[in-house]
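User: Reviewer 2 asked us to show a designed sequence for the structure in our supplementary figure. I'm pasting the structure tokens here. Could you produce the per-position amino acids so we can include them in the response letter?
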């Protein structure tokens, strides 16, 4: 529903809440006030991260002003929040927490009981009587939830003036396009959809509307066509006009006035209904065959989002001096977050998140105390404090952006699960000229594919991928397999965008009880290797074979070790690895406790057969030596201050890595090495990959690998320039992409041969 956009902004994440009356059915009106009560209007402004917080501002006598923090209390905050339509106040802040306001300070020494219907009824020095400065401006945080059916009779704020906003495609060429990028801007008021008169409309208004619906910017359109259309059909105009500056994250922050041109809801002073035409980001732009001529394109890739569950959200990272780093959340606001969102091809920001809410990054903190005007093309153009002293990754900033409504959720569902977050995966497809639900073949079904399903359904991250779903009986009519050979790279927005078989399906096991299934979770772990520890602890050791029997049994030595006499030795490249969990949930092994394997050599249970790969590569990327791929025991070696250890290998204890803790594998334990006995002196690349088979779902796989430059002269070895992430290519991902590309080429080649045979026969 289009209404989801505005309801999300109003504090209803899944549309209008069930059980509450729709506004047109039951409306909360402003209460009757004593005749001598000053008529005021309130808003929350300033450097805020969400719509329900900010500096308290009062509109009186034609001018916006602020409220002083003297004598202010949670009871006064309660009155403010209720007057703005929120259920209650959560907290309040003195000393211009949300920045200093401008203009008059309308109220000072405010004292409320909490039951007043408006701030103007609370005790104060009198309206406009104050000895405060704007450094004392008060701010409040209100609850996310709205008063059901709340609606002002006379207000300056659009989000409580109308019930919904939409872009309605008018021209036939746009009606079937997804997403809808051009059409009338319509508001729903009193249960009826109305157009807005364009006499006082500006391009800044269009920019804000496009941002709300997930588009980074607006563009020109063919006005002549719409004028002809307006002559044929009599519009119904809204009584108000909108005045935006263009940098608002949502139209609810724009000013509202009476539309002087719109008369009797039928005329527009020579104008026509407002039309917007929005430019979609590259990820949402249809193919050229659908008629789009232009899509928004990033000029440079200097910003990225990491750790988010869905498209358009994540921790903000910027590229500086060839190294990715994070942004400190000091002064992080919806305005700055919107610059990031538009830069990446999304719309305006829905939320500016702080405190490492979407996971903690690694490396430097590049930017702090960012201040944007809202019109910058990149966050790197905004003013910021280059000194990030005192900022840690616990303060990493993140965003949630508005993205276009693509309708992906309507073509996929989970069936038979115990809750809405799990079940058999069922896909809606065209079959025999009609729409029908069917299952997905589970051959090759894995974590990456499950991640795409959970993202498409807006259910967060995958927690498990299932190749059998007999315990989740779905509808019998949906048992037949309608999709097979599914292979995803992990970046797709929907399962249909993954590689899969064409009209000729291949699924020996069939659907039904053997169909693919998933379970989803709002959070996920995120493992990151500390590159400095590797660089600082590397050394070389010549170790006798008679001391390597356990390692030999676990295949931790190269294949030539079987020919090495017990009296001889093997040359080992040793190092420590410190693996942090920077995610939002604990990292737990996939295998159930009963299936863990006891290892006599190490005297503990191993819960994962493959946890890391250690490889030595030539400079052209060829593997010349590899470390062990044996199983590991996962535990909390150390934790950040205030976090308790939860996992320990001893005594058959629970295994895992707690959020905020790390597991250290010291350089002096078995198999913590690469056997370089057969390696010639030279320059190499050392690579470590964590969770290489994607056995356990994580919020971000791109930081699971690390590379270092390595120099070996036959007697000594040096490790330098160690770093995580995007500068390297993960071999497992390369193999997956190669498989996908090879399959596409094979499919194309087969199709071409079939066509050739067909026309040759003709």
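Assistant: Here is a per-position design you can include in the supplement:
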């Amino acid at each position: 529903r289009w209404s989801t956009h505005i309801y999300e902004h109003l504090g209803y994440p899944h549309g209008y809440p069930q059980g509450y009356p729709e506004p047109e059915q039951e409306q909360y009106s402003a209460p009757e006030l004593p005749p001598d009560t000053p008529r005021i209007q309130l808003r929350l402004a300033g450097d805020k991260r969400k719509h329900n917080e900010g500096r308290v501002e009062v509109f009186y006598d034609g001018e916006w002003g602020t409220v002083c923090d003297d004598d202010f209390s949670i009871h006064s905050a309660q009155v403010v929040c209720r007057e703005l339509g929120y259920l209650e106040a959560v907290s309040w802040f003195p000393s211009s927490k949300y920045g200093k306001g401008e203009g008059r300070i309308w109220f000072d020494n405010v004292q409320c009981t909490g039951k007043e219907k408006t701030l103007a009824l609370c005790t104060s020095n009198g309206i406009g009587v104050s000895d405060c400065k704007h450094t004392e401006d008060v701010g409040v945080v209100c609850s996310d939830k709205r008063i059901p059916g709340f609606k002002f009779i006379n207000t300056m704020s659009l989000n409580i003036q109308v019930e919904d906003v939409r872009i309605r495609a008018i021209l036939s060429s746009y009606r079937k396009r997804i997403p809808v990028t051009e059409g009338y801007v319509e508001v729903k008021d009193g249960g009826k959809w109305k157009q807005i008169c364009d006499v006082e409309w500006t391009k800044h208004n269009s920019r804000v509307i496009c941002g709300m619906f997930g588009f980074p910017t607006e563009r020109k359109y063919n006005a002549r066509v719409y004028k002809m259309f307006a002559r044929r059909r009599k519009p119904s105009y809204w009584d108000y006009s909108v005045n935006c500056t263009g940098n608002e994250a949502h139209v609810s922050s724009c000013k509202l006035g009476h539309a002087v041109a719109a008369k009797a809801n039928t005329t527009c002073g020579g104008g026509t209904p407002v039309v917007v035409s929005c430019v979609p980001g590259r990820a949402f732009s249809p193919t050229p065959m659908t008629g789009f001529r232009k899509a928004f394109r990033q000029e440079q890739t200097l910003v990225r989002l990491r750790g988010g569950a869905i498209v358009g959200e994540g921790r903000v990272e910027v590229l500086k001096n060839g190294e990715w780093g994070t942004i400190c959340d000091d002064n992080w606001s919806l305005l700055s977050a919107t610059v990031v969102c538009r830069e990446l091809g999304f719309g305006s920001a829905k939320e500016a998140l702080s405190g490492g809410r979407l996971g903690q990054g690694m490396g430097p903190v590049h930017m702090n105390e960012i201040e944007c005007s809202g019109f910058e093309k990149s966050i790197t153009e905004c003013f910021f404090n280059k000194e990030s002293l005192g900022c840690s990754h616990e303060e990493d900033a993140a965003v949630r952006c508005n993205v276009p409504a693509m309708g992906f959720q309507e073509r996929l569902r989970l069936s038979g699960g115990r809750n809405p977050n799990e079940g058999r995966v069922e896909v809606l497809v065209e079959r025999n000229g009609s729409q029908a639900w069917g299952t997905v073949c589970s051959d090759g079904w894995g974590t990456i594919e499950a991640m795409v399903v959970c993202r498409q359904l807006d259910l967060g991250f995958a927690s498990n991928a299932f190749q059998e779903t007999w315990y989740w009986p779905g509808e019998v009519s949906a048992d037949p397999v309608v999709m097979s050979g599914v292979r995803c790279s992990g970046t797709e927005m929907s399962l249909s965008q993954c590689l899969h078989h064409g009209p000729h399906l291949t699924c020996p096991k069939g659907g039904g009880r053997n169909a693919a299934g998933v379970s989803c979770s709002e959070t996920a772990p995120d493992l990151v290797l500390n590159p400095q520890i590797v660089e600082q602890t590397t050394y070389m050791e010549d170790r006798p074979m008679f001391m390597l029997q356990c390692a030999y049994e676990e295949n931790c030595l190269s294949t030539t070790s079987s020919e090495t006499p017990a009296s001889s030795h093997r040359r080992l490249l040793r190092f420590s690895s410190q693996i942090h969990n920077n995610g939002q949930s604990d990292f737990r092994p996939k295998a159930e406790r009963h299936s863990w394997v006891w290892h006599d050599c190490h005297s503990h249970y191993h819960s994962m057969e493959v946890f890391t790969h250690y490889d030595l590569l030539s400079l052209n990327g060829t593997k010349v030596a590899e470390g062990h791929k044996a199983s590991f025991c996962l535990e909390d070696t150390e934790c950040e201050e205030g976090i308790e250890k939860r996992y320990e290998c001893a005594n058959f204890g629970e295994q895992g890595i707690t959020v905020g803790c790390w597991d250290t594998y010291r350089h002096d334990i078995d198999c913590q090495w690469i056997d370089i006995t057969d390696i010639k002196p030279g320059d190499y690349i050392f690579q470590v990959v964590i969770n290489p088979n994607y056995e356990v779902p994580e919020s971000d796989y791109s930081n699971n690998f690390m590379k270092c430059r390595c120099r070996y002269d036959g007697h000594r070895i040096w490790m330098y320039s160690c770093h995580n992430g995007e500068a390297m290519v993960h071999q497992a991902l390369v193999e997956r992409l190669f498989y996908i590309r090879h399959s596409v080429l094979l499919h194309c080649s087969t199709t071409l041969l079939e066509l050739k045979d067909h026309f040759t026969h003709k």
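For the response letter, you might also mention the following. Residues 731-761 form the longest helix (31 residues). The two ends are 50 Å apart (CA to CA).
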